[in-house]
Design goal:
The chain is of the alpha+beta class and 118 residues long. It has a single domain, classed as Ribosomal Protein L22, Chain A (Alpha-Beta Complex), CATH 3.90.470. It is built from three helices and five strands; from the N terminus they run E-H-H-H-E-E-E-E. The strands form two sheets. Strands 1-5-2 form a three-stranded antiparallel beta sheet. A two-stranded antiparallel sheet has the order 3-4. A hairpin with a 5-residue loop joins strand 3 (85-90) and strand 4 (96-101). Helix 2 (29-37) packs antiparallel against helix 3. The protein is elongated. It starts with a strand and ends in a 6-residue tail after the last strand.
């Protein structure tokens, strides 16, 4: 059984989020939550929120009696680049320099382990 959660238009670059997602891919959900809780990066907040949402979706789909948080693992965690907001800053000799404010879309899929009844 699988459950997904998405988090769109986060105001952080996909490169920074991908470093965090690499730490939790293919890990058990309690272990991934533990890693994210004690990680010293401020961009972990949106990843933690999305992981909580994916776990809640899985428990809601299966029912509380059938599935627990410990029975799940992070099957897939990906991030894609979203739209960029373009701003201008004064450059040398009266020219303008573009500033790209990047956004990202996060997708986390959790699945139940093999031995758990669905």
């Amino acid at each position: 059984m699988e459950a997904k959660a998405f988090c769109y238009y986060q105001r952080v670059s996909a490169k920074k989020i991908n470093r965090i997602l690499a730490l939790i891919r293919n890990r058990a959900v309690p272990e991934a939550l533990n890693i994210l809780t004690f990680l010293a990066k401020p961009t972990k907040r949106s990843v933690l929120k999305t992981l909580h949402s994916a776990v809640a979706n899985a428990i809601s789909l299966a029912g509380k009696a059938k599935l627990a948080e410990a029975d799940l693992y992070v099957k897939k965690a990906i991030v894609n680049g979203g739209p960029m907001m373009k701003r201008w800053q004064a450059g040398p000799r009266g020219s303008a320099t573009i500033i790209r404010r990047r956004t990202s879309h996060i997708c986390i899929v959790v699945a139940s382990k093999e031995g758990v009844k669905k």
